[in-house]
Amino acid sequence: MDYLRGEWLPCRERWANCYTNHIFHIGNTSKNRVESMHSSLKKWLATSTHKIDTLFLRFHTSINGRVIELRKDLEDSLSKVFALAYGPPYVNLNTIVSLWAVELLMEERKRKIVQGCGCRIPETHGLPCKCKIDELSAAGVELHHNHLHPFWSSLVYESPLDLAEWEDHDAIERDIFTAMVQDVYKQGPTAIRKATQVLRPHILPQVEGLQEPKELEAPKGRPPRRSNTRDPSWFEHERARSAQTSRKNQSPRTSRS
Hints:
The chain is mainly α. Helices cover 50% and strands 0% of the residues. Helix 4 (99-110) crosses helix 6.
């Protein structure tokens, strides 16, 4: 309180109101993060008697270490697959945009509209609002990274505002895949065979031996609480099908007269 009365209250006539409702701030509506870093830096220095050269050296070392940690956290966020975002309309956003952006979109879609949408989140966070998400879902269009501000894909605040200058992730992935295919062709038949073995289960799953069993048409319902019964495994399905096929292929025995 003494610090507040001595430092802040004397200059309160110079304060100005700042409205952030229509400003692109990505959720940064206070200076708590800056104040926290300032406090941590003062505790880390632990003294105010450093020389200018040693002080700047320690300060820049601390900043560089923090930048490396932030980049690592952001890269980890991009590489994580959000399990709750598998279904529509978030399928095309996995591993493309930040995890926080998907969470904000899910919260925005669950928001109940009492009187008008407001459409504030496109201005403040660069994300589609609830009415836009509902409009795309009604038209059968899933959310794509082009519907979001470039910041959520690049994690760079100074992203270009012109979306035409923003690189298309799909085009980049196609170019990378084309270059990989060309490299495999150059390596010869062995590399082609190995790549085919890796891609075949994803492109032609019907030719693989491991397939999901068919669902029961007439299930028996929920078993008792202490029941030890379980659904048949894949090899049990295969064994039953093989036995049924062998019985059909057996020729009927003829009795000797």
